[in-house]
Every structure is written in C-alpha cells, then in structure tokens.
Amino acid sequence: MLFKKKNIPFYEPCQEIPLRKTDKWRYLDMTTRVRLKSASWRILVVGIIFGTLYCIILARLFQLTIMDYHGRNYTKVLSENYALARYNILDRKGILLASSVPTTDLSINPALVKGDPKEVAHNIAQALNNVDERDVYSAITSSAGFKYIKRKLSPTERSNINWLGYPFLSEFPGEYRTYPHRNLVSHILGGVDIDNMGISGIEKAYDKQLMEQNVNLSIDVSVQEMVHNALTKGIEKFKATAALALVMDINNGEILASVSLPDYNPNLPAKGIGKERFNQTTLGTYEFGSIFKLFNTALGLESKTITVDSIFDTSKPLKIGRKQITDYRGQARPLTVPEILIHSSNIGSAQIGLKIGQERQKEFLGRFGFYDKLPIPLPERGTTQYNKKAKWADMESATISYGYGISVTPLHLIAAVASLVNGGIYRVPTFIKDGNKNQIETRVVDEKVSKIMRHLMWGVVNYELPSKSPVALYAVGGKTGSANLLDERGKYIEGKLRTTFVGAFPMTDPQYIVLVSYTDPKKVKETFMFNAAGWNAKATGLQIIGDIAPYLGVKPVESWEQPGYITRAFERSRAAKKGH
C-alpha cells in the first residue's frame, strides 16, 4: 500500500512554532468571532457603496467632457451665474465698444474688527491697489455698521484679501464697465459712475435702454480708427492745440466717425479732466469762416438774386459804415460766383449777402437748424451763438455771409452742408444705426440749386488739384474756412486761426461727407509758413477721404463733365494768375 508523503515542516528544539490560519480562530471565543464576521460584511458593503459612487462620478465626467461638450450652452450657464445689469454698446457691424464684466465690492463691519486697527488697516491697504491706509483706518474706526473699502476689485486684489482671512470683511457681487478700444470712441461712448449709471455720452443718453438690450451705434470702428490716426498725425505735424473730425453718410445722416482731440481713456475716467473730456464735435460752438459762403451762394441762387455768371467787383475793400471788409490774398479784380468760392473772397460774398437782404438770409439759415440745439439724445449738445435781434445790421449780415458773427457746432455744419449736395434734403445727424429710419425729411434747398452747388464745390477742390492726386479719382467737392480765434475778452487774435475743411464725395452721386477742423495750427516748413485751412485742414481731409473711400466701397469716377461756368472760372483764374 502506497502512502502519499505529507510536507510536514521540521522544527528544531526550542524553535517557536507559528500559528496556522485556522489556529488564529481556534483560540477566539464565539462573541469575538461573531463581531469580526459582522465587521467584514460592513467593510464589504461600504466598499461597494464607495465603488458605485466613484463609477457614477466617472460616468458623469465622461458625459460632460466627452459626450456633451459641443452641445452645452456655456454662455447661458455663465449668464445665469453672473447676471449683469447693463448691456453692451456695439458699432454698426456688431464690434464691441462697451461691455460689463462681473467683479466684487469689498466692505467692512467696523464693530466686528478685533486687534490693532492700525495693523489691520495696513494689511488691507497693502492687499489693494490705489487705496490709502488712512481711509481704511477711518472706515475701521467708524461707528457705522457698514463701510465700503473699495469697489470693483480686480482678481488679484480679491485673492490678496481672501488670504488675509479677516471675518469682518464682506464681498458683494458687482460689475465693472470696460471699454476695449480705450480712447478711440471715448467722447461718444461717455462713461458711467461707481454704480454703473450713465453720466455722459451714449451711456447717459441710452441709460434705460442699456438696462434692457444692446445698443448699436452708427459708428464704424474701422472708419473711426482711420480718421483718428490721420487726425493724430495732423495735430502733431501742424502743431495744433486741438482737432476734430466727422464722417457722415449723406443719405441717412448716420455718423460713421466722430473724433475729438485731445481725448481720454474711459477706463481711467479720473485721468480725463478739462479739455480732454470736452467733446468738440457736438458740444463746441465755433465760427467756421468761409464755409458759410456755401450757404450764402445757395441762397443767392435759390432766390434768383444771382446766377452762376454774375460778376462782383472785388478790386477794393468793401466799406460799410466806419468798417471795411477785405480779402486774404485777394484777387483785386471782378470775380464770377464760382471764382468767389474758388478764391474765397470775403468782399464778393458780402456783396451777395447784402444784395439778398438780411430777412431772407436769416430765414434761410434757420432752415438748417443753426439757431437751435440739435435734436440728438446726447447730453453734450452745444448752444449756437448769433445775434437774436429781429433785425440784423448790414455789417452783421455781411460778416455772416462769410462765416463771422455766428457760431455753430461741427455737427450742425456737416449736416447742413450735406443737405446742399444731396438734393436739398435736411436729415438730422444720428449716432444710432438706422436712427433716422422713421424720421420725416425736410427740403431746405431746391434740387436744381443743389446740383449747381455740387459743381461749384467740385470746382473749389479741384482747381489746381493735381490730376494724379489719389482723391481726384473720387470727384471730391468741398470748401475751406479759416476764422480768427477769440481771446478771453472776446477780441480776435491776429494770426491764430481755426481752420476747417468740409468735403463730400463723389460729386456725381454724393455718398459721404467729411469735416476736419484744427485749433491754432502753426506756420511750419511743410506748409511754407502758412497756416490757413488750405494748407492743413484740407490736406488732412483729402487724406481721410483717400483712406476711407475704398473701405466704404466708393468706386473711382470714370467720367466727370464739368459745366461751362466752371471751365470759364478756371480759365479766368489761370489767365489772371499768369498775368500777375
């Protein structure tokens, strides 16, 4: 009989014999065995529960990050978590101009502060930017139950405050208004106060609407930037103290660009004070000089007081009472109506104005809204200045005919000149996209007169303009104006000028109009030591037209037939110049 040999270990004398697994239970009493058995089941159940929860979490994470990633509306989630009270301001193409971002306001309960107030004030001031330690100490020692330490904390400041761990500090949700384009559209956008309520510009004009929906401006950021760049270079080149520019759609009155220099960064409103915050395009009122000769001429033609072939003697100064009217670099010869505009004769224009009569002159200028504030929602609206007497004296009527004695805003002026070339329809300028969609249009000039004015203005710009000039392709028509600045006593300063150019294009079918104005441009080498508008404002205006015309889709004019009276004016002027 075969026996299987068992693997029995051999133990040496005095060697400790280890307990087997079954031996561990053999010497336990029954109560302990029951407890251990029960505990092992509990551990198993707990392990199963935690394992199941872990699997559920993994499955949910997989669903969120892999399966539903493209389907989830994270914008909606964020808007629900951070409900902002103020909506956005956009340009005409939907580009963001002003927006609100969530932030935090920090407050303190002085009654709960423990420890040395000076030390606490020092620590809080160190954690925040631009906060005076004395102001914090004043809040801590106040008897009030609530005090703001700082509004609109940055993420870094909030992190620093949280690290302090002070239980007496409290955070409240808020929002911060931000302007991504900084200075570019600052005067039009305006700003808000510490409570995000509009205090200037569009922010104030549409304060209620911005609590309900976005506001789309007529401004085109691309056009605005081109104009801003050209004006910035111009103000440096001509060493002017200030400058402004406007671009308007002639057919609907929408403002595509509005620049006023100097400007400011609305993200740092405290840094913009005084002249930087002054919006020259809508609030400033100025005498624009010879540009008003356009209205004088249009009135003369409409009233049939003159024709395009009428001739006025400008060979000597025009005396009115004890005063006399002279020309700047005058022609000293008889001039036709087109030549009066081309050479900007004060003497000729004053004679036209006196021939028309002050009653008709006063009524005609009133058609363009020159006596009232513009009906635009912006709070920055300038009040025009003129003699409000029922009857003007001959000298007033004469000087107003060439732009002295009446001050209007640049926005007044560009809208009025636009109506001279668009067929005679006046449209109120607007900064809102489709803002004039339901507005009633007003005829202010006869359509035939408007057509003549287009030719006359084309002649003013293109006389002596090189045919190879880029802007010559766009049939630009316009007028310059130079007016002496006033001192603090209301006296004209010799040699200090406000220079302005207004130009529309193309004159075959006017689409857009540009206005540029400089305050006190200097006589520099580039302008052969002249500082009149033809040397600075006109140069910048034509540059802007050359920059924006391709962007706006304006095609070069292939053919332009100038009427006989323009051809004759050119020939007379060139012959007179050759004779000198």
Structural account:
The structure is a single chain. By secondary structure, the chain is α+β, with helices and mostly antiparallel strands. It contains 18 helices and 18 strands. It has helices at 21-26, 30-67, 74-81, 117-127, 133-140, 155-164, 186-189, 201-205, 221-237, 293-302, 337-342, 346-356, 358-367, 394-400, 410-421, 447-462, 537-551, 564-579; strands spanning 89-90, 96-108, 147-153, 169-178, 191-192, 198-200, 215-216, 242-249, 255-261, 311-313, 318-320, 323-325, 334-336, 425-426, 442-443, 477-486, 492-505, 512-519. The strands form six sheets. Strands 1, 2, 3, 4 and 7 form a five-stranded mixed sheet that branches. It is elongated.
Please state the average pLDDT score. Answer: 90
Largest sheet: 5 strands, mixed
β-strand percent reads: 15-25%
| Gyration radius, in Å | 39 Å
Which CATH architecture of the domain at 224-579 is right?
Answer: 3-Layer(aba) Sandwich
**Strand segment count:** 18
General form = elongated
Helix share bin: 25-40%
State the distance separating the first and last CA atoms: 152 Å
- Spans of at least 5 consecutive residues with low confidence: 74-80
- Quick one: CATH superfamily of the domain at 224-579? DD-peptidase/beta-lactamase superfamily
Total helices: the number is 18
Structural class: alpha+beta
Please identify the top-level CATH class of the domain at 224-579: Alpha Beta
In the CATH scheme, what's the topology name of the domain at 224-579?
A: Beta-lactamase
